[in-house]
Amino acid sequence: MFKYFKTKLAFLLLFLFLNLNLSGFSYEYTSNEEKNFIEIYEKTLPSIVSIEADIDHGTSGGTGCIISKSGIILTSSHVIEKARNITVTTHSGRNYTAKVLAVLKNKNDLALIKIDTKEDLPLAKFGDSDEVKVGQRVLTIGCPFGFRDTLTTGIISRIDYERNKIQTDAAINPGCSGGPLLNLKGEIIGINQSIYNPDNNRSNIGIGFALPSNYAIDFIAKVNKKMAAIK
Q1: pTM for this structure?
Q2: Residues 114 and 133 in one domain
Q3: Average pLDDT estimate for 86-115
Q4: Catalytic amino acids?
Q5: Do 134 and 116 share a domain, yes or no?
Q6: Which residues constitute the domain of residue 148?
Q7: What is the pLDDT of residues 1-46, one digit of tens each?
Q8: Which of 216-225's residues contact partners 24+ apart within 8 Å by CB, and which partners?
């Protein structure tokens, strides 16, 4: 009997020891870059939403960036094109029905949608896409194939000035459209748009494209000016 209680006491002490140590546990970064990636992700994520749009042939999924406390969200126009109903899910897990405010025509693939909410919405931060350099490290946040809050990393592979596109090898997949391409300051330098898939493979092969952030900023400014004029 004594041996039984002695063994039980030993397990109890071990349990208490482990819990005391785990309660004071703090993650040790392996590098400054890793620390920066984690901080950018945790800081940016609350300003990113997932989008589901009901279309004729099913559901179109995408990502969006909150740009206004009033609930205005920037995304790709092909995500919400011809949608009967648009549902936005914020980082808090709340669902909202969104309405379309503006769509950039001529296949330039940007749109603004709006949700009505009293939720305290954190805002995405834009950077200057004119300063982007080939070879710089970048991160993306999106909802590939419906997997919300996914982070990927890569570099700027090429800048296509003729087509106004930033090329990256950071993994972009269906569901990531409208999400941010971020620099290491946590600033949006591009809006993820598409992938190159010559074999009709929907998955990423390391060639993805984003619209420059300055292009998006100009679109937002024009819409704001138009809305102000209407008021």
Answers
A1: 0.85
A2: no
A3: 92
A4: 78, 109, 177
A5: no
A6: 129-218
A7: 444 445 554 554 444 444 545 445 567 888 899 999 999 999 999 9
A8: 216/74, 216/110, 216/126, 216/188, 216/191, 217/126, 219/102, 219/104, 219/108, 219/110, 219/112, 220/67, 220/74, 220/112, 223/101, 223/102, 223/112
